[in-house]
Specification:
Radius of gyration: 17 Å
CATH topology: TIM Barrel
Structural class: alpha/beta
Number of strands: 8
CATH class: Alpha Beta
Strand order of the largest sheet: 1-2-3-4-5-6-7-8
Bound molecules: pyridoxine-5'-phosphate
Oligomer: single chain
Order of helices and strands: EHHEHEHEHEHHEHHEHEHH
Number of domains: 1
Number of helices: 12
Distance between the termini: 5 Å
Helix content: 40-55%
């Protein structure tokens, strides 16, 4: 059965609209765990546009499932992760102007730096996952940099314009997954997944965990966070 990681960034986005203290992403994480999610994800961006340093410290102290810190490979952020020691670090590319993480990491172009960062994080006992596009060349480069987990970027699938495109992109993900399994990698998936498009991708065998944020937080406005997580968990599982 696939697992569900809930990304609480958008709770912090709402808080930042008024630069106040509520809604609190740590309180949200508690409710998500109570509703049965398997991990909590939060992205400490360099510009701190939503999640901040205090949030990740409190998440590390209070999350009882697993805390997955999403992060770029900038030296300062890597230093923070090494001191914090979350259960997992998911490495993502980060561009200041983007609304959200737009593409996967370029493992090939960043090979040397990634090797160093992954070793530093692994030496602290942190599991490392790499957020990448469903691209065989990128996947083939993963073992060399020392990671054992990848998260396939599902954005292209999620934003398919019609049924045919959606099926093609789903097949691309399924093929990438089978290729990655050949290297013995654990494969997660996420980005842009919602209560509709999750149905088909949840049927793809061997996806270990889905990481989902925006659609769950949006739905929580209407049905409450606990129900929103339960509904998504039922679809994922
Ligand atoms: N996984 C990764 C690596 C991401 O960067 C994001 C977006 O923060 C997600 C999953 C969740 O995407 P969404 O908020 O679109 O569900």
């Amino acid at each position: 059965m696939a697992k569900l990681g809930v990304n609480v960034d958008h709770v912090a986005t709402l808080r930042q609209a008024r630069r106040g203290v509520c809604p609190d992403p740590v309180h949200a994480a508690f409710i998500c765990e109570k509703a049965g999610c398997d991990s909590i994800v939060a992205h400490l961006r360099e510009d701190r546009r939503h999640i901040n340093d205090g949030d990740i410290k409190r998440l590390k102290d209070t999350v009882i499932t697993r805390f997955n810190l999403e992060m770029c490979i900038a030296p300062r952020i890597v230093g923070i992760a090494c001191r914090l020691k979350p259960h997992q670090a998911t490495l993502v590319p980060e561009r200041r102007q983007e609304l959200t993480t737009e593409g996967g990491l370029d493992i090939i172009a960043n090979r040397k730096r990634l090797k160093d960062v992954i070793k530093r994080l692994s030496d602290k006992g942190i599991e490392v996952s790499l957020f990448i596009d469903p691209d065989k060349k990128q996947i083939a480069a993963v073992p060399e940099v020392g990671a054992k987990i990848i998260e396939l970027h599902t954005g292209k699938y999620a934003h398919a314009k019609n049924k045919i495109q959606s099926l093609e992109r789903l097949e691309e993900i399924a093929q990438a997954l089978r290729y990655a399994k050949g290297f013995g990698l654990t494969v997660n998936a996420g980005h842009g997944l919602d209560y509709d498009n999750i149905t088909a991708i949840a049927k793809v065998k061997d996806i270990y965990e889905f990481n989902i944020g925006y659609s769950i937080i949006c739905r929580s406005l209407f049905v409450g966070l606990e129900n929103a997580v339960k509904e998504m968990a039922a679809r994922v599982k």
